[in-house]
Design a protein that fits this description.
The longest helix has about 45 residues. This protein starts with a helix and ends with a helix. The mean pLDDT is about 85. It has 9 helices and no strands. Helix 2 crosses helix 9, helix 3 packs antiparallel against helix 4 and helix 5 packs antiparallel against helix 6.
Amino acid sequence: MLKNIFKAIQAYFGAFALISKLGLWKYFAIPIVISLLTAISIGLTAYGFSDNIFDYILSIFPSWNSTSWLRNLSEIFIGLAIVAIGLLLYKHIVMALSAPFMSPVSERIEAHLTNSPLPRNNKSSFGSQLSRGIKINLRNLFKELKLTIPVLLIGFIPVIGIASSVLLFLIQAYYAGFGNMDYTLERHFNYRESIQFVKKNKGTAIGNGIVFLLCLLIPILGLMIVLPLSVTAASKETVRLLELNNSKENVQ
């Protein structure tokens, strides 16, 4: 798994050059707008509700207000929860709505890497790509929530709670990479087959997602470059894995 994580990270190198070489920037215009609007909406919502959440917790545990270390701990926990849930919602909304624009990008990258011509009649329509993106990301959203909520609760446990931040990051990374890989997989596998393929290649998904999340740490610019870089890198690695998988099947 570690080997695939590093390969997925390395796939980001040369991403900008490949995008420019294949003339793919035009496909990212609308997804960049979607990314910015989604981030702003989630940020404003989180900011507006954070105080309400804290006041609600204090109404349940009024003693926390007079105990400084408990108050500080609760503030840290609320902040961590807002960031984790905000990132969780952001990436699934953006990746789902961007699917019809990212699939052509992935298709052109695959054609370039495999020296194959682009298909004249693409079986996937705008509507089917959007439907697939929403279906995959809704599934991933619920799966991720099931893992995220218990991990957030671990944050209350002294010492062990420190590990919750690392676990949350890796969970977020996996599902971010999952969504980016599916832009390529949708042309090769059905819904269930794609899920199984990503499960077998968790390292690739995590590696891609790690850089995806790190990009979001860059104010404003990160929101603009995260999809171009991550989708290009994911397409490169997914094509490599598909070719490796096909070669193994041919040998058998």
